[in-house]
Structures are given as structure tokens and as C-alpha cells.
Amino acid sequence: MVEQTGESKRFEPKVAVQLDPPKDDPISVEELAKCDGTDPNRPTLVAIKGVVFDVTRNSAYGASGSYRVFAGKDASRALASSSLKPEDCVPEWYDLPDKEKTVLDEWFTFFSKRYNIVGKVEGAKNT
């Protein structure tokens, strides 16, 4: 058995997650905004760097969850800067310092090991 290095193991979920193959369906900003955890008939979605993740099964992103601020948005900047401020939940991240860009990449890895990729934000320029 091959032992994983600390770095690659660092983002592994505690419980193995079976993920579907990633999709690249276009999702409009308007549709993404409707998937903010407040409508039980819609999935709860969070986008990072233009890639849309389905976080429905994690109540932390739901209407009363501690991470609800990210739901229905591309929250790249907020995740990169470890912010829960609604005004930071925007897709632009290119002007951030390298350290925060690294944090954003780590969040992307974290999400990609736990949540299905269901599409890409239509017209996203922050990939």
C-alpha cells in the first residue's frame, strides 16, 4: 500500500465521498443566485474560480448555516481571504496577494474532494 504524503492527504475527507464525474454545463449567474439554499426544490450551489459545486448535502451552506453567505455565488474572493462578509463573495481574485491565491487553491481542492462539480458559471473570467 502506498502512503500518501501529508500535503495530498491534508484535504482528504474524513469519510470517503463517492463523486460523480464532473460536468461542465453552463450555469448562468442568475440561476446560480437562485441556488442559495433558501428553496428546498433547488440544489445549494457554491462556485469557486467559475466552477460550480453542489453543496446541498452540507447544511452549513443552507439558509441558516454558518457558510450560507457563500451559497448561490462565486465566493472566490471571500474564500481566498477567509471572509464571511457578503460584499467579499465575488468572483474577482486576480489582484489578491499570492498567499491568498494559495488559500483559494486549497479551498478549490477541498471542495473538489467533497462535492460534485455540476457546471461552470456562464461567461466566468475568473477561472
From TrEMBL:
Positions of the Cytochrome b5 heme-binding domain: 27-122
Basic and acidic residues: which segments have biased composition? 1-13
Q: Which organism is this entry from?
A: Penicillium nalgiovense
Q: PANTHER family attached here?
A: BINDING PROTEIN, PUTATIVE (AFU_ORTHOLOGUE AFUA_4G06240)-RELATED, MEMBRANE-ASSOCIATED PROGESTERONE RECEPTOR COMPONENT-RELATED
Q: Which domain of life is it from?
A: Eukaryota
Q: Which Pfam families match?
A: Cyt-b5
Task: Look up the record and report any one GO term of the cellular component aspect.
Answer: endoplasmic reticulum
Under InterPro entries, the record lists: Cyt_B5-like_heme/steroid-bd (IPR001199), Cyt_B5-like_heme/steroid_sf (IPR036400), MAPR/NEUFC/NENF-like (IPR050577)
- Name of the featured protein: Cytochrome b5 heme-binding domain-containing protein
Q: Which family does it belong to?
A: Belongs to the cytochrome b5 family. MAPR subfamily.
